[in-house]
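Lab meeting notes turned into a lecture example. A postdoc, R.K., suggested we walk through two folding results consecutively so the class can see how the record format repeats. The first protein's sequence and structure tokens come next.
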Amino acid sequence: MTVSSIPNLMPASVPSFKNTEQFHHAIRTQLTHDIEVLFAYAELPSPLIDACRYVMTGQGKAVRPLLVASVFASVTDSSQINNDASDVEERLQSSDAADFVDPTDLTDDTLSDELESLLENDSDYDMCRRAALAVELLHTYSLVHDDLPCMDDDELRRGQPTCHIAFDEATALLAGDVLQTLAFEVLTVEMPTFAHFDADIASQLLAVFAPRARRMVSGQMLDLNAEAKEDISQNELEAIHRDKTGALIEAAMLMGGICAGATALQRMALQDCAQHIGLAFQVQDDILDVTTSTDTLGKPAGSDEKLDKSTYVKLMGVENAKTYAQSLFDEGRTAIVRELSNNKENDALLALIQWLWARKK
């Protein structure tokens, strides 16, 4: 595929949230398309391009891109639907009598459809697409490097052989390298199907993204240092995972908020929520590693024990770890409800948090 062969459709319209399954499908479909656009632009040599496509198009959950998009949808819904509802009402009242709809009869679906129409040509969502791409590129790079023989030496990832098994170690190393660089490049590069990047938003995104990318790598080092340690405390374990896992989840949520024009108070709520969800996600991973099969996980079950890693299960046991994860998810929900959620039954971010809590892999 070449850049010139991709239709120049820009910008994309933000999917409206009606239910979790449809919304997640729409975001994953857009992400898959955007990955191909990016690789066509990048013109990487073979087998590097083949390795990058292999790891970026596997059966991953796309949690971080979904966080970007869900925050974007929720902040937009929270901050704009209230403002736009009066505009919708005014237009409806000025319509012909035969077409008049009583504003008190407006449903959430009506407002969501109206909002989607208002945002149809809004380049803010294209910046959200860039942010979603960026976090998925960075996350996938970290997985490729984590799986290398010099790190965790794993042979299965996302239900398929790891990159260094499918290709070779040198290609896997370079694939991780280039995915990391593309994660930053994608925020400002001109590509087909994307609107021209917004320099102010891009600057804010980079200011959030770069330090959390650094923290993710620092957390990976701390995690390696903690292997085989018997006396690690819960505070020390959480310090590792606030960086290794939590930093990129923070980046995803804050970047979604930036693209949607979140207020300072909303960003503080997102940061608070992300810190709880980031830890909860890692506690869950530790639980699933010992309670779920390799076939379900898509990666080797029991790998934490094999590597003698410090985990929440090792520290507090499975049942206490489950209770702790539940409390973290609850605190994450509470943080955003205060500032973001006008409709607790139809909110993209709250729905995603519930989906994460129920995950089995």
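The second example is placed directly after the first for contrast:
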Amino acid sequence: MPERGLARSLVEAYLYFDLEAQGASREAVVVREEDGWVLRLGDAEVLVPAEAEAAAREQELTFGSGRSELIDPGQWVLVAATYASRALEGGLFFAADPSDAEGFGRVAAGWRFAADAVAQALEFFPEGGAELPLEAFWTEMGRALRESQPDRLSRRKLESDLAFYRQSLDDFRRLHSR
């Protein structure tokens, strides 16, 4: 069996499986073990230590604290863009029916997850560094983004994206809170 991956939260573990194959997380089997949860999908296993999940929940960190060992910075940038796109689209539908409480939650979560994913990508920068090191990209998806659109992966761009996503969330809440 392949080596067991290590996630910092259950959300990160599920996201990892979805990045491997779209929708795959729905097929994952979760088993509670003494030291946490193990998610299994085929031959792949990911451990989420109980302490890591508890810390993520306590600190309200969607994907966990520290640097991911499962998802590289290129993937985090793509995840952030996906969530932001969903939030933008959801915002348009919400504007048509601002009484939709579930719609409000989906849009707010989209902006929050987009910001959280960019924050994860920023974890990979060396202290004071403006660019990500080549070895930070270990997945095909991450390397492809680095090769095709390296401008999306600079510290300056990611900090700008993070500020935009956070401001979008704040604006959405301010405009539509009940």
